[in-house]
Amino acid sequence: MSSVPTATVSRLVTYLRILTQLEAQGVKKTSSEHLADEAQVSAFQVRKDLAYFGRFGTRGAGYTVPTLRRELRRILGLTRPWSAAIVGVGRLGEAILHYPNFSDYDFVLKGAFDIDPNKVGFELGGVKIDHIDELPRVVREKGIDIGFITVPQTAAQGAADALVRAGVRGILNFAPTIIDVPKEVHVEPVDFLAGLKRLSFYILNPQLREELV
Amino acid sequence: MSSVPTATVSRLVTYLRILTQLEAQGVKKTSSEHLADEAQVSAFQVRKDLAYFGRFGTRGAGYTVPTLRRELRRILGLTRPWSAAIVGVGRLGEAILHYPNFSDYDFVLKGAFDIDPNKVGFELGGVKIDHIDELPRVVREKGIDIGFITVPQTAAQGAADALVRAGVRGILNFAPTIIDVPKEVHVEPVDFLAGLKRLSFYILNPQLREELV
């Protein structure tokens, strides 16, 4: 397999969410048509996305919900626990430290870093806030895989550098700026201002919206 | 023009951010190569993305920074003001109400809604919090174009329905669930758990990362 479109990976995440809801509702079987409908894509797209990873389901009989859900969790790497740490305990960092839904997917927030003496040493959402200078030690001792960057834009690259040096393998970047990392580290931007600008474009240009494939 | 790939719209937002930084630094000229480098795509991709919207720059001479920036702002609809309201004033809603960077792009938060009597009637970040029952009136009176959904997952569809009925044209959905809206309303999801799951996939499968086009 050479590569998988990033849009496919995003849709797998969506299909998994739908399957999780179906399973919670006790639904045993589903179809590419139903998944497509819920995910707002075409059934062809669902089948094409899944085909990157093998054969699932049976022509005419659809998919078994728990089986496909388990497969998607495996494909996405969600059957193992991930340890994360957050750099920057401002309002957004605080909101994330209190976010209730991490544990659904075995993401565990184990560390938090800031430079503010009014925050360092305290605990939020059950996580101790350490000074950023302690990052290398804490990341190593707690086996942190993933760093969340929630510092202001101007401090984002410094935070990324510190996380990379400490050995994290992925970064969820909430700062509205592109950060430079070595290619073996993966970055996922979470930029709601970017979402807002796309919204502006599509409100003004509804006719340019991509048709469902 | 039939449609524009959603990935292109996302990249236009990125190019605009880079051009804004260049202009702030006093840089007058740039090139598809430089933009590509900063945006971590190929120069071919930059030229292809821009070509959807016309001819910019001169072969061999590159782009004039303020001109291209102005054009991108116009294409994205950022030369006009947008009014937004937020539904759900929990921790995330509060973080957004205090977010300092909206005004850079003429996004103005004019309304906030909740059902908690300890919040309704108070002000946060200069915005009055109204009871959700007041949403139709406030959206109409303040000319709200865009709604932010920051309620829990189970309340997201209800919030979307209320916003749509009140006449908003776009929704920025922070709740980790797909919301159903009529096709004339555009939804941009901001789902950081989805980003976290993509991260998990790419950490485990670095070889499946899409190559730069």
**What is the residue-averaged pLDDT of chain A?**
89
Number of helices of chain A: 8
Count of β-strands of chain A:
9
- β-strand percent of chain A reads 15-25%
Principal-axes shape call of chain A:
globular
Tell me the quaternary state: homodimer
The CATH architecture term of the largest domain in chain A is 3-Layer(aba) Sandwich
Order of helices and strands of chain A: HEHHEHEHEEEHEHEEH
What is the helical fraction of chain A, as a range of percent? 40-55%
- CATH class of the largest domain in chain A, named Alpha Beta
- The CATH superfamily name of the largest domain in chain A is NAD(P)-binding Rossmann-like Domain
Tell me the number of structural domains of chain A.
Answer: 2
For the CA atoms, what is the radius of gyration of chain A?
Answer: 20 Å
Largest sheet geometry of chain A:
7 strands, mixed
* Terminal-residue CA separation of chain A: 22 Å
Largest inter-chain contact set = A-B, 69 and 69 residues
Secondary structure class of chain A reads alpha/beta
Strand order of the largest sheet of chain A: 5-6-4-3-7-8-9
CATH topology of the largest domain in chain A: Rossmann fold
Poorly predicted spans of chain A: none
Describe the secondary-structure layout:
The structure is a homodimer of 213-residue chains.
Chain A (H helix, E strand, L loop, with lengths): L5 H19 L4 E2 L1 H8 L3 H9 L11 E2 H11 L6 E6 L3 H7 L9 E8 L8 E2 L2 E5 L3 H8 L3 E4 L6 H11 L3 E4 L12 E4 L2 H13 L9
Parallel strand pairs in A: 3-4, 3-7, 4-6, 7-8, 8-9
Antiparallel strand pairs in A: 1-2, 5-6
Helix pairs in contact in A: 1-4, 2-3, 6-7
